[in-house]
Every structure is written in C-alpha cells, then in structure tokens.
Amino acid sequence: MALNVSTKTGIVLAIIGVLTVFAGIALFKQAPDDLLSSDIDCEDNNPNGQIDGTCETDGDFGIGACFGGIILAGIGIGIIIASLVSILAGGVSSLTVSNATEIIIHCPHCNSTIEMPLNASGLFDCPHCNEEFQWN
What we know:
Layout: H1 5-29, H2 31-37, E1 39-42, E2 55-58, H3 63-93, E3 102-106, E4 113-117, E5 122-125, E6 132-135
Antiparallel strand pairs: 1-2, 3-4, 5-6
Helix pairs in contact: 1-3
C-alpha cells in the first residue's frame, strides 16, 4: 500500500521534530560547562583598595544554552505534534468511500471480469466467450 502525500509529509516532519528535540537536549546539557567556563573580572583601580564597579564578564553563565535548549526542544515538540496531525489526516483521507457507478462481475462461464453499470440487470453476453448469463 502506497502512502499518500499527507502521510509522507507527516513522517518527514516527525523525523525533523525528533532531531530538533535531541538538538535542544544536547544544547541544554551544555549549560553546566558554559557556567563553569564563565568568569567575572573586576579590577581594583582605586588606591584605597575599593572596587570601582568596572567589571567584565566572560561568557553568559550557561543561560543562553539553558534557555536555547528549552526553546529548541519546545519547537521540536511542536513539530512532532504537527506531524501527528498530518499523519492522522493522511490516514483518514485515504479511507474515503468513493461513489461507485460501475461494478465488476465475473463471467460464470469463462471467469473473465466485466464492468457493468451499477443498476444493470437482465440477460447479458460475455464479450470474451460470447456466452449468455443472467445478472440481477
């Protein structure tokens, strides 16, 4: 059974969503390392030993990795939810019932298939074996 376009799109979105969640988790796990590598440098410029308030920081103390990872994982979860909607919509749309106007029957003499109108009945000749048969 072939998959329709909506189902295929849903599967691709699900894969992208899972990869995005994993990337968010990996980025979130990087936050403790960023915290340890961050530093504050305050210089003592006054002769009396007081700090004048001029400080420099190296790094963001892991805040960027922490919030970036959470946001990226949230986006991934949203993509996964969207993919589930697409997969379910594809599955439902492939189950639609068509309005048949013709039926296929088998000849009782040669077993060949014959297409007939839905409301056909009476005596028919098989186009393959030329034998007559009754159809109600």
